[in-house]
């Protein structure tokens, strides 16, 4: 491939200098001899001449050129050069670099492609700026901790793949091990697929108490969760990295909240990329599964950043392990609980509401909420159950409707812990406080509380 880059000066050469000096097929045609000399001094290939003269292009052997690139900022000159090129070679592909406004005024030509300067910036410059931004974040994170510090990486009560993968990545970024930087929780991992993840990837998650959290001056880092989630308060928090909407105001020495992202694992993948760290298969698999599970394979609540992170991780990860995590064995008692719940399902305005009663394992509640969306005509799944002395409510919707997290926060955040995203959310309420507020725990109570709010939000305009 031979390219002819037609420019007023050497700005384009400076922009693509590494490519131009590495690939000798790029010939820069400019208007002034001095510009040609500058390009040649820096290893580029260049000629100069009148850009509107046929003999200039004869000297460039236009018949051997595979594609022409026009980078002429003066619109009139660019138009005349384009017309001349088309007269000289009707089949020559031409790439025109210009502003978006000017590009709209150019004539239609199947072999003419426009690339706006705005798109050039987005494609080539924006990633570099994001890398610089993320490198700065990583340096700030590393500066929080001394070599002798013990760091507890705290996850939510029932850690999920996004939090687990993010915790592994934070430990990798800090160059730590599980002894000096353990991954901890006040609860335990319960969902079968999450248990399969920690078993297959050999991840240790320790149970910890509030009393032990800061023992010996241990530092505290939170990933995929925020301090207001916990009760009682945690005390001093050093780091919070999360993608969920901000909860009540909190303080931490370092905070990075990106609510447009579908997964916290995406943030940590960007950190790794920005610092040039190539993830191990184990880490890449954990992060990939974290993104995949939190966004339902990029179908719900995801951002372009999640897709780019997923694409980066994919070659490093083990797809076989991900498949084994996603299809863990289902104990018979859980299967029975699912069957009983289906027999009691109630449908109202596209909302499936189920109260499962007492459950042995909390994870069957979100599993049933996910399953509800497979029922014809269902756009929302609302499933509740009793797990010990807590009422757990899980909500899922089909993605083009909104505000699952907002609705649960509005109803339950004052008496428990509630929140999430537009398409998936969870509330955990102490049983006694739920009864004080609503009288009893039943499918009827939850349906009457949830369905009117869901219907109202679905009917509201997009800007609401």
Looking at this protein, list some descriptive labels:
464 residues; alpha/beta; Rossmann fold; inorganic pyrophosphatase (n-terminal core); Diaminopimelate Epimerase, Chain A, domain 1; six-stranded parallel β-sheet; 18 strands; 19% strand
What's the SSE blueprint?
Elements: E1 3-7, H1 11-15, H2 17-22, E2 26-30, H3 33-41, E3 45-48, H4 54-59, E4 67-71, H5 75-88, E5 94-98, H6 100-104, E6 112-116, H7 117-143, E7 151-154, H8 161-174, E8 183-185, H9 192-200, E9 205-207, E10 219-223, E11 239-242, E12 254-257, H10 264-274, H11 281-295, H12 304-313, H13 319-326, H14 332-343, E13 346-348, E14 351-358, H15 364-372, E15 380-387, E16 390-397, H16 404-412, E17 417-420, E18 424-430, H17 431-438, H18 443-459
Parallel strand pairs: 1-2, 1-4, 2-3, 4-5, 5-6, 7-8, 7-10, 8-9, 10-11, 11-12, 14-15
Antiparallel strand pairs: 13-14, 15-16, 16-18, 17-18
């Amino acid at each position: 491939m031979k390219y002819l880059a037609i420019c007023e000066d050497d700005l384009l050469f400076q922009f693509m200098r590494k490519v131009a000096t590495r690939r000798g097929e790029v010939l820069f045609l400019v208007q002034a001899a001095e510009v040609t000399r500058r390009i040649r001094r820096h290893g580029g290939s260049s000629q100069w001449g009148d850009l509107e003269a046929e003999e200039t292009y004869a000297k460039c052997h236009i018949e051997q050129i595979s594609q022409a690139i026009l980078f002429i900022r003066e619109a009139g000159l660019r138009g005349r050069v384009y017309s001349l090129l088309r007269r000289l070679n009707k089949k020559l592909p031409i790439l025109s670099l210009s502003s978006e406004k000017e590009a709209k005024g150019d004539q239609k030509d199947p072999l003419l492609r426009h690339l706006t300067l705005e798109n050039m910036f987005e494609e080539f410059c924006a990633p570099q700026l994001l890398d610089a931004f993320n490198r700065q974040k990583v340096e700030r994170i590393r500066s929080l901790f001394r070599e002798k510090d013990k760091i507890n990486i705290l996850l939510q009560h029932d850690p999920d793949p996004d939090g687990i993968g993010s915790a592994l990545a934070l430990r990798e970024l800090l160059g730590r091990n599980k002894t000096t930087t353990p991954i901890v929780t006040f609860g335990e991992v319960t969902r079968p697929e999450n248990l399969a993840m920690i078993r297959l990837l050999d991840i240790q998650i320790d149970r910890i108490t509030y009393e032990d959290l800061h023992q010996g001056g241990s530092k505290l880092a939170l990933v995929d969760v925020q301090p207001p989630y916990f009760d009682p308060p945690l005390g001093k928090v050093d780091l919070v990295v999360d993608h969920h909407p901000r909860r009540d105001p909190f303080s931490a020495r370092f905070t990075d909240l990106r609510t447009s992202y579908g997964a916290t694992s995406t943030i940590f993948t960007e950190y790794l990329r920005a610092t040039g760290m190539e993830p191990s298969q184990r880490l890449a698999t954990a992060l990939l599964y974290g993104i995949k599970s939190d966004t339902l394979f990029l179908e719900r609540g995801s951002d372009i950043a999640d897709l780019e992170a997923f694409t980066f991780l994919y070659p490093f990860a083990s797809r076989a392990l991900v498949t084994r995590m996603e299809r863990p064995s289902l104990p018979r008692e859980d299967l029975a609980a699912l069957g009983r719940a289906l027999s009691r399902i109630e449908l109202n305005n596209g909302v499936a509401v189920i109260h499962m009663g007492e459950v042995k394992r909390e994870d069957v509640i979100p599993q049933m909420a996910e399953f509800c969306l497979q029922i014809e005509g269902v756009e929302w799944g609302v499933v509740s159950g009793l797990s010990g002395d807590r009422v757990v409510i899980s909500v899922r919707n089909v993605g083009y409707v909104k505000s699952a997290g907002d609705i649960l926060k509005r109803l339950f955040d004052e008496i428990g812990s509630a929140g999430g995203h537009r398409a998936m959310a969870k509330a955990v309420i102490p049983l006694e406080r739920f009864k004080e507020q609503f009288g009893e725990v039943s499918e009827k109570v939850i349906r009457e509380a949830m369905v009117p709010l869901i219907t109202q939000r679905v009917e509201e305009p997009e800007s609401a």
